[in-house]
Amino acid sequence: MTLFYTNSVRHLVEKMDLEKMGFERGQYILKKFSDGEMYVRLEQNVEGERVWVLGSTNPPAENLLELLFLFEALHREKAEINLLIPYFGYARQDRVKTGEAFSGKIVCDLLRKFKPVSISVLHMHSPRLQRYLEYVNVIPFEIFNPIIDTAEIIVAPDKGAFAVAHQIGKEHNLPIVLLEKERPVQEKVVMAKIHGSVKHKKVMIVDDMITTGRTITEAAILLREQGAKEISVVATHGVFTQGAVRRIESSPIKKVYVTNSLPQKHRSKKIKVIDLTDFLERVLKTAR
Question: Is the pLDDT of residue 288 over 70?
């Protein structure tokens, strides 16, 4: 079977042994014209073949365009496309107010247009987008199991993380504590309530992604005020926008564990990156 992959996931595929997995690398040309326009052309015949595409939709916009152009080329050649997205960009824009673009839905509509046979997303941020795109949500928390086993309490930093926290707590036979947060303005966080006790306990905050770092650092401050003995964090995606690492460094958090679904370039001693390669290989091989 053939695996096509975009530049957005090159850092992951370079660690994979495609031949051992039973895949051959899909061949296509990607270049830019002098005015910056992107150009994609397949270099192999895929008519009627079942192929896999591995690609993320995170900024810059070229990542999304490359994936869409590759999709279009494969679709016109009547290939049966299976898509695995390690990071679904724009998933946080999953609802709109008057005058706003519904960016999450737009990305879903664009992907659905090419009629893929299947779509798997690594820990999608919002279940709301399920109504616009049929996909399998693949949550890789099994790779965090040895870390989670060191905790005494699982903490959901907001209601959106509660379902995953509940699942992890059940699997590890650990109690769950829920925090409630408020957003007075975009990308600002205020922790409002805590449901449960963390006094003298080692706690593990679980979430899908860390972007500005405000949610987990404000949660850590509240947990420390409530008597938590040790605070760590596991999250699938480490986005780490400007200021996030600084907030983590100055917070009560002992350690933050994220995957390399996105390239990780920070140099914080508090942040530990867990390699996704083996997990993604299992997902691809199982789906073959």
Answer: no
- Active-site residue, selected from the candidate residues 31, 181, 201, 255: 181
Task: Write the secondary structure of the chain as one string of H (helix), E (strand) and C (coil).
Answer: CEEEECHHHHHHHCCCCHHHHCCEECCEEEEECCCCCEEEEECCCCCCCEEEEECCCCCCHHHHHHHHHHHHHHHHCCCEEEEEECCCCCCCCCCCCCCCCCHHHHHHHHHHCCCCCEEEEECCCCHHHHHCCCCEEECCHHHHHHHHCCCCEEEECCHHHHHHHHHHHHHHCCCEEEEEEECCCCCCCEEEEEECCCCCCEEEEEEEEECCCHHHHHHHHHHHHCCCCEEEEEEEEECCCCCHHHHHHCCCCCEEEEECCCCCCCCCCCEEEECCHHHHHHHHHHHC
Given this model, what pLDDT does residue 190 score? 62
pLDDT digits (tens, 9 = 90+) for 108-124: 999 999 999 999 999 99
Q: Please indicate whether residue 32 is annotated as part of the active site.
A: no
Give the start-to-end residue ranges of the domains of the chain. 2-138, 141-275
**Averaged pLDDT for residues 89-110:** 94
Q: Give residue 118's pLDDT.
A: 94
Given the candidates 3.40.50.1970, 3.40.50.720, 3.20.20.360, 3.40.50.2020, the CATH classification of the domain at 141-275 is 3.40.50.2020
